[in-house]
Amino acid sequence: MPYNEIIMDHFSNPRNVGEIPDADGVGEVGNPVCGDMMKFTIKVKDDRLEDVKFLTFGCGAAIAVSSMVSELAKGKTLDEAMQITNKDVAAALGGLPGNKMHCSNLGADALHKAIEDYRKRQAVPVAKTEESGGGCCCSFCDDDFDCPVSSASPGPTCEAKVQEK
Amino acid sequence: MVKINLDYGAATPVDPAVLQAMYPYFTEHYGNPHSLHDLGEQPRQAVAAAREKVAALLGAKAEEIIFTSCASEANNTALKGLAAASKSKGKHIITCAIEHHSVLNPLRTLEKAGFKLTILPVDRYGLVDPEQLRQAITGETIFISIQAANPEIGTLQPLPLLTAVAQEKGIPFHTDATSAAGFIPLKVEELGVDLLTLAGDQFYGPKGSGALYVRRGTRLLPLLEGGIQEKGRRAGTENVPAIVGLGEAAVLAREKMAARSSSLAALRDALKEKIFAAVPHLHLNGHPHLRLPHNLHVSVEFVEGEALLLRLNMAGIYVSSGSTCTSQALKSSHVLQAIGLAPELAQGSLLFTLGPESKAEDAPYVAEQLSRITALLRQMSPLYHKYSKGG
Ligand code: FES
User: Fold this and answer.
1) How far apart (Å, rounded) are the C-alpha atoms in residues B68 and B236?
2) Beta-strand relationship, B210-214 and B195-199
3) Could you report the per-residue pLDDT of B146-193, keeping only the tens digit for each?
4) Using CA of residue A56, residue B368, residue B126, residue B91, what is the dihedral sign?
5) Distance, CA of B377 to CA of B383 (rounded, Å)
6) Active site residue A138
7) Nearest chain A Cα to B378, which residue?
8) Which of A29, A88, A116, B142 could form a disulfide with B86 if both were Cys (CB 3.0 to 4.6 A apart)?
9) Is B325 in the pocket of ligand 1 (CB under 6 A)?
10) Domain C-terminal end among B235, B253, B271
11) Which atom of ligand 1 is closest in space to residue B323's alpha carbon?
12) Could you confirm whether B70 is annotated as catalytic?
């Protein structure tokens, strides 16, 4: 099994699956590396994420990532939620295999998009937050094998490499 | 706990009779077949007997069989050996788009070394068109390599039609029969091939056993150079237990092939019927009937293959997938690309290969689990939600 227990737990019992029917914000992203998809819907009350739900078409890691992002985000203020990075998600999941780091980007990006969408609807001008990027934050993306320590040693430069693939 | 292996394409168990035959060559008869003293005698005879047995499976002569360590080595030996031996005649090689990596990668290496490579397309079932093959041949063509069966989608190539084209022009024809050997008849005369690759681990022999048939008179330079083992065509001390095991597996294959294949095909057809009845939006990949008897390849719409595979694993069912997410390099299967399968369907692909422990009782359980798991994953699939909203 390529995944640790935390990932398998979130994969087998994903939290917050679904789509909020009258959502305040919707964020959808496609995975540039492998063509998979994630969609987050949010409900906002008093500047806090009252509810977060996701839909994911993707691998075990992608599903676990979505589930973890939804848990991390729920109850947070919008600003706090905007600070959640793919690294936080990977760390909360106890580390992802090296070639699966890119799946962790999807989750945070989709959530951030949903928040941006909400703010756009509220017409509150906000400074554009830095995206966690479409690439991998580890320095192992070129590896063809699972890397047990990938989440521990992020290297910022491999974004382009991952996009190429 | 239930354990249903439907991934025999990855590995098969060694038949007990095969294992039994191998034992003495690890212990009692551990000698080197090339020793002149008595310790070499029994191993030498055993290797010779195994050669006869593998030759018999192919309707070939014993001296036309080279033992190798695996199918990849046999493919590399065939392709690089042919290229090296026929450089002076020309530099053009023809293959097809759905070959195994152990064919495509050595050929790409040859291409980098200055050979010209034509990779024939296949139709949506994975079939190569003999007419296209004919048109691809030039005066420079030195050999053709087209597989007997595809390990992923199971499609059987019309080899006699393809080799007939090659024979008209006198061009050597290699076939990678790794996934076909032991399951469909492979008489080299009927197929019309000049070289053929097989491996024991696909048909209940040991891992680390392979063979290359090379028609007498075919010029081939060795890949592994060193001693004069295998008449100088493959150096390296013979792996006697593996060779003996391969020989035994070939005997069993010859005796049991018809019964084995028809029972596997019946089980496969039952499984197919059950899962198609249980799971909506399921697609069959590969040819409807020109396929390996133990192969079933489907795409489950709106869900991704790794998630399916992991969930099935939790239910004790072992399968594989051609999804990008399951590949270490995150590349989608070149086979599914070549047959023109839509990327979303390739993402949801599942490969079932049946084997010796497959039973009729498996099908209802697998269908039930696949239907439960698919429904669960579709519940969380944005694609499925979009579809059900009519978008
Ligand atoms: S979603 Fe494809 S590898 Fe994770």
Assistant:
1) 9
2) antiparallel
3) 999 999 999 999 999 999 999 999 999 999 999 999 999 999 999 999
4) positive
5) 11
6) no
7) A57
8) B142
9) yes
10) B253
11) 2
12) no
